[in-house]
Amino acid sequence: MNCSLKILPPSTESPDLFQCGTAATAEIRERYEHFCELVSLSERRLSSGDQISACAFAQAAARLAYPASAGIFGSNRLERVLNRIGDSIPSSPEKRQRSGTGLNVLHVLSYAKPIGGDGRYAWRWMQADRQNRHSFVITRQCDLSPNATVPEIFRLSAEQSGGFIKTLRASSSKPIAQARELRELCDGMDFVVLHTYPYDIVPCLALTRGVPAKVIYVHHSDHTFWIGASVTDLMVHLRPQHEGFLRERRGIVAEGGYELPIPLPEPPPALERRRAKRLLGYAEDEIVLLTIATPFKYSATGLVSFLELVEPIVSRYQHVRLLAVGPSPDDPAWRSASLRTEGRIKPVGVRWENEVLYAAADIYLDSVPFASITSLLEAGIHGLPLIGYQLQNEELQLMGAGAAGLQGSMILASSRNTYCLTELIEDAAYRTRLGALTKCQIQNSHCLPNWLERLGDVYAAARDVKSRGVMSGQEPEFQAGVLSVALNSLYPRRDTAKILSECFRDLPLISKLRDLRVLRSHGLNAGVSAALPFRWRYAARRLLSTYRA
Fold it and tell me: What does the angle CA 459 – CA 468 – CA 163 come to, to the nearest 5 degrees?
């Protein structure tokens, strides 16, 4: 068989024809209308001089549009409000002196978590770019939990480069105070790199003026709504982008972006496959399939799911085993699949260290319908053949696999009956050839020295930018299309009342009562408890949990 397969042609069946039902599109439109109301209220509060309330309405609007879709993928109106607030935030007169040789690069993250592609991209950037100093600033770590700690890998990556790591002191419900602190930390920096979550408004407030550092935005969530274009000098894309989508649906200038693949370290010397299988309790002649992703990426209403594709094949072969990292053993769908296959499908939950699994695996399966690109590349760099599923709708392909090094090596099926896992199971030589090709192509794009050369081009391109901001000036189009419906099916929805309660919790009591009354008049109810001071609500929750126990 030819080991450089491309996307397989669709068959006569059409399992991914996604229907946008009336209820689903009505929900998206309602969400969009609420988003617009919140932006309008933010504009009104800003015009009256109340920046704190204006920020609360703006933050609520951004949270409402991500991850559940409001039918838009950017908002120039929202960014302009945030820029106007940011322009009025006084800067500290003290300036940090630049020291030493090399570049000073500040990486800004919303959260520092041990899993997830955004964090890996940031710390691997630091580890690869050894001739410059890199530092971390984290804006919303306390949102994870009151005592959430920063994983050691972040601290080590920063300190080994000569930089620092800092968690903003102010609460995430006080974005103006956070923005002032972030702006001060940008002093003496050559570049500020944003790896932030799409709804994080702090960079839009902090980087509007008085920050001479060039701002690079890492476009790591290219399938969802996000803000940050107004304060960006250079967009960095992780994979090729559709210029029409960027211009019409995001409202940004499509030209001038730069593609910088996900950085990958060379994997450590692998265990012999036979030995790794023995460590996991498998026989040498058993075929081990591996998949790693966040659980929500494996199924969505109206789209073909991972288990639909894989379970019939595992059932057919008694010597095939599937290890799924991410999905919980207690998940009903995965537990049922495990029972039906007599344990040969095994969900193992979240694991941090997977080297033994990579060594034991014969084939890597991408999550379906939502690809997990970082996991794919990490498997490919270990020499595993990769197989995934490509949705045929152009918008839905933003949920699919697409990264440098995968074209021509990864098998991408386009229907159930072209998901040719069977061929990989039955042909060991084919697996070996395809795995070797995949590893070679990924190394060329994602590993040193080629990746570092591309990074140098990014720094040079950012330096050449004359004016900040990549917004086109055209408000992005609203569409209750298939991508928005699919995202709402994939992502767990956050309760609107909870979003509003979090965004308004630290406002002065009089302002809070006024704003909550206005929200209610617009059909947005934050609940009675939102009016209570935060400490009172925390005490009430503890009392209630004690009573229930």
Answer: 45
